[in-house]
Amino acid sequence: MFVSSVEPDSSHVGANAVDGNNQTRWGSVHADPQWITVDLGETRTIDRVRLSWEAAFARAYKVQISPDNATWSTIYSTETGDGGVDELLVAGSGRYVRVEGTQRGTQWGYSLWDLQILGEG
Description:
Elements: E1 5-8, E2 26-27, E3 34-53, E4 58-66, E5 73-78, E6 85-104, E7 111-120
């Protein structure tokens, strides 16, 4: 995994989603939409994203990539998320990766124990 920084729009620290510790988490406020953005430091090829949801999961969400943190392309989307661990096969390249929750699966916000972005440098 390659991560240089995380920009959270949340109530919990974004870096917790990418610290490799399943005892820490990123969590959002209780509203739609919410997202977490990861800066990979340079353009990378991405072929897999692994999301480990806490009990507050996304029913509907998108995984998006961007070269500039402004223009986004969706590489995965679902409206039938059920929590747990999502292993997503994706294809794309970009410097930024965003997971955007558009419909919460619970009354709470969105919460990730772990977010892994895998691919080639």
